[in-house]
Amino acid sequence: xxxxxxxxxxxxxxxxxxxxxxxxxxxxxxxxxxxxxxxxxxxxxxxxxxxxxxxxxxxxxxxxxxxxxxxxxxxxxxxxxxxxxxxxxxxxxxxxxxxxxxxxxxxxxxxxxxxxxxxxxxxxxxxxxxxxxxxxxxxxxxxxxxxxxxxxxxxxxxxxxxxxxxxxxxxxxxxxxxxxxxxxxxxxxxxxxxxxxxxxxxxxxxxxxxxxxxxxxxxxxxxxxxxxxxxxxxxxxxxxxxxxxxxxxxxxxxxxxxxxxxxxxxxxxxxxxxxxxxxxxxxxxxxxxxxxxxxxxxxxxxxxxxxxxxxxxxxxxxxxxxxxxxxxxxxxxxxxxxxxxxxxxxx
Amino acid sequence: xxxxxxxxxxxxxxxxxxxxxxxxxxxxxxxxxxxxxxxxxxxxxxxxxxxxxxxxxxxxxxxxxxxxxxxxxxxxxxxxxxxxxxxxxxxxxxxxxxxxxxxxxxxxxxxxxxxxxxxxxxxxxxxxxxxxxxxxxxxxxxxxxxxxxxxxxxxxxxxxxxxxxxxxxxxxxxxxxxxxxxxxxxxxxxxxxxxxxxxxxxxxxxxxxxxxxxxxxxxxxxxxxxxxxxxxxxxxxxxxxxxxxxxxxxxxxxxxxxxxxxxxxxxxxxxxxxxxxxxxxxxxxxxxxxxxxxxxxxxxxxxxxxxxxxxxxxxxxxxxxxxxxxxxxxxxxxxxxxxx
Lengths: 347, 340
What we know:
Chain A has 12 helices and 13 strands.
């Protein structure tokens, strides 16, 4: 295995400090591995407040962890020298939720594409620049003649988002981190954009970290999934295993709450107020399992210490005492084994 | 609770309207823009039966929210309702005076707005906002119940503690705020509730709880609901019948099961194919092409530039929404050949 991008027991706390008590733990001891030799699509799923966007910002080096480390090719991000940092900036690309905010509205969209070309010296002439820009637009499923020379407001949301994909592709990245890339796009275009991301992995061997609240698209595109609850991994494993037979009480609730596009499969039962209760805005520190207050199966031990990951299947681990008869596994071990086995193709 | 309503005082519709609590006929709405009128709603007709949950689904720009707000006459400049009828129990809401319409809103036809949780007043206690709604309708509020008794009943029916009356909006979670908005919408026992993307900012678990609450109170009241949205999954879970909008027109209307099992309009077919599910990993495909510009709409059928079955006729003649099977309306030239 050759780790391209790794999160090693990463934590991030906001606030706290001398005067206030504690702080908000946004990401709590999360490990994740993207293997350079084994392109994969990894979903990070969770509701608002689960820490998924904070994890994305940690992986991009935009914010620093308060515990653990993010490593790029074995080196902690904070220790990268100039050349390695530049390589990191090329290898790891990001696509964000709102494709409108990523543009300068008074410039043509071409600018978004020409800046990386000149900053990274990707082309030696104007013609060559034009050529590689057109090539990456086509890879993102766009016709260059329909997109170049236009202003952001003249394009649809789906086109704007695909230009962001094209921009990421210009740099020939090894991994693309996509934070809710389709949540603001209409249904008919959502599938088109996700298709183009899946194609990048299949045809170009680019890994994808797909951050989303939407379990249906996560299931459709990814091989592995991390389900986050209040910053901690609740369940992690192959997407087939986790979505088809969820084991953590939180994952079960999530999966059963997805409104499926099939009138014959209805939401079963009703949700209790405890189960539906969102996490309070300021998260109290807890010694035990963070889900205990909402969990219908809560046991005394859940209040004492946070549950470790239990390996319930070869390709899935659950942080829940209901499965304490299974062997324990660390987040790091699980992340490495999933990254290596991620050869199963999605569609 | 017996309560004479503005609408039923005026009363009396035709014979085929007995089963229609709301009947929208040939609604046209335009936005005046510097580049000319933009036809956002272009001849939309549908009806609601008593107690029915109807879904109005479409992508952004399809005219679904404009349609929904027209029913309440809540559109503002530069939007203009250019024609059509909105019959609520036989009374055309488009013909009422401003004051009559104000009294009809909430009392007979209520709105749960998009981002409803941001529609609460941050400076005013929740209970006071609910009291306001009743006070504004004093003319049509004839219940013997005291204001606060009614409010307690309603909060109870949306599973909220009556304690929230003394709290402010910021003290509540998103799901609780949304349930306050449902409570506000049902305070006066309306016949029709228009819910415009009521859960679009909520997490799935909370979304499910809010929708289950809405369904329960709707059934208790016997009210009809128009659910406006783009989430076909939510439609499948919630509504009885569905109307699919595209480019300001309804292209297909039918019972939710038939629409999902056997969509007839090519747009509906492609839309349903583009939905990811959790059962099977199949190739789900987007719809090629872009939504039409409403300033310069294509001639003929709005969907023909993206339609895989487009025929010469489609770029010339506008297909009419017609009943091709019992309960199923489709606007597509492909239907012309098949016997109705």
